[in-house]
Each structure stands twice: as C-alpha cells, then as structure tokens.
TrEMBL record:
Keywords: Ribonucleoprotein, Ribosomal protein, RNA-binding, rRNA-binding. Residues 13-40 form the Ribosomal protein L9 domain. PANTHER family: 50S RIBOSOMAL PROTEIN L9. Pfam families: Ribosomal_L9_C, Ribosomal_L9_N. SUPFAM superfamilies: L9 N-domain-like, Ribosomal protein L9 C-domain. PROSITE patterns: RIBOSOMAL_L9. Residues 184-193 have a biased composition (Acidic residues). Residues 151-193 are annotated as: Disordered. This is Large ribosomal subunit protein bL9. GO terms for cellular component: ribosome. Binds to the 23S rRNA. Belongs to the bacterial ribosomal protein bL9 family.
C-alpha cells in the first residue's frame, strides 16, 4: 500500500514523502496513529492544503522533545532491585519500569519511546536510549543496584560483581589448583577412627 507520511518516520521517510509499505503496517500502525494517509488524489490535495499546519505542529513537538532531552541528557537514575551475590537479578528492569522511574522524577515518557531490546537482568550501570521524537534521541544511565549504598559505590566506578567484591579475594588469586590438587595425598578420615 502506498501512503503519504504526515511526519518523519524512522527508517521509512520524511514528511510529505509517498512510500510503499506493507498493508498491515499501514492499517495497524501508520493510519490509526495519524502518521500517514493513503496515497490517493484526494489525500494528496488534503496533505498539500494542510502542509503548513503539519510542519508547524511537527516543529512544536520537536522543540518540546528537545527541551525534555536537554533536561534528561546524561542523567543517572538509581533502580533498587534484589539480586544474588553474582549480580544476577531475581526479576528484571523492563521498559515499563523505566517509564515509571522517569514518571516519578517528573518526566512523561511513553513506553514505546524507550529503546530497550532486552530487559536488564544484572546489576550495574546501563545506558538506555530514549527516542523522544523522530529527530530527537537522548541517552540516560540506569544505576541498577541492590541498595542505595551499592548504587553510590557503583557510581564511583566500583565493580560489585567481581570476585573481590563478593568474596574479598583478588580474581587472580582464585585458581582451581588452589582448591583441588589431584596429586596431593589425602588421609582418609575413616582410617584414623
């Protein structure tokens, strides 16, 4: 199906372009969300008559997104979750959790604006991309930790998932031969009894 884009759509085209897309994509996404019109003579004339209004609305949305991006750029948010000693979380941090965290800080972000291919399942510092507008992207940092104190230590650069942090031993000192030596002679406890 051919459609006329009413706004810039990532990986598809700019406002005003006529592009060919799959029918389902047009019917289920582009048309209901008002991002496109079917490409026919009547809609082309309608688009040309409304072009100035659409461009002004797009510019207004972009400037609002840039304001939000400036206040979010480089910010770090602490997420406290329970996790095991090795740093594997019992749950995960998904896009809806990120939206809720940002909402608590006063930012209104939709779930589809969070670029998170896989949920976060380990403690540590994680970069997350937010697509606030088709032309405005911002990166934030999530500090996922077991407690606020651990989050503070992580933000200073400490690795809480290393063997030294977990066991108090340098990782280089943890060699298998230190724990089991097949050539060593062991006394059988039953023989001494």
């Amino acid at each position: 199906m051919e459609v006329i884009l009413l706004e810039r759509v990532t990986k598809l085209g700019q406002m005003g372009e006529t592009v060919k897309v799959r029918d389902g994509y047009a019917r289920n996404y582009l048309l209901p969300l008002g991002k496109a019109l079917r490409a026919n003579a009547a809609n082309k004339a309608r688009f040309e008559s409304e072009r100035a209004t659409l461009e002004a609305r797009n510019l207004e949305r972009k400037s609002e997104a840039q304001k939000v991006a400036e206040s979010l750029d480089g910010k770090s948010f602490i997420v406290v979750r329970s996790a095991g000693e090795t740093g594997q979380m019992y749950g995960s941090v998904a896009a809806r959790d990120i939206v809720e965290i940002l909402g608590n800080e006063g930012f209104t972000i939709a779930r589809n604006q969070v670029e998170l291919n896989n949920p976060i399942k380990a403690i540590g510092l994680h970069k997350v991309e937010l697509h606030l507008h088709a032309e405005v992207t911002v990166s934030i940092e999530l500090n996922v930790a077991r407690s606020a104190e651990e989050a503070e230590r992580q933000s200073k650069g400490e690795d809480l998932t290393s063997a030294e942090a977990i066991y108090g031993v340098d990782e280089d000192a943890l060699r298998p031969e230190d724990f089991f030596n097949p050539e060593a002679e062991y006394e059988d406890e039953d023989e001494n009894a």
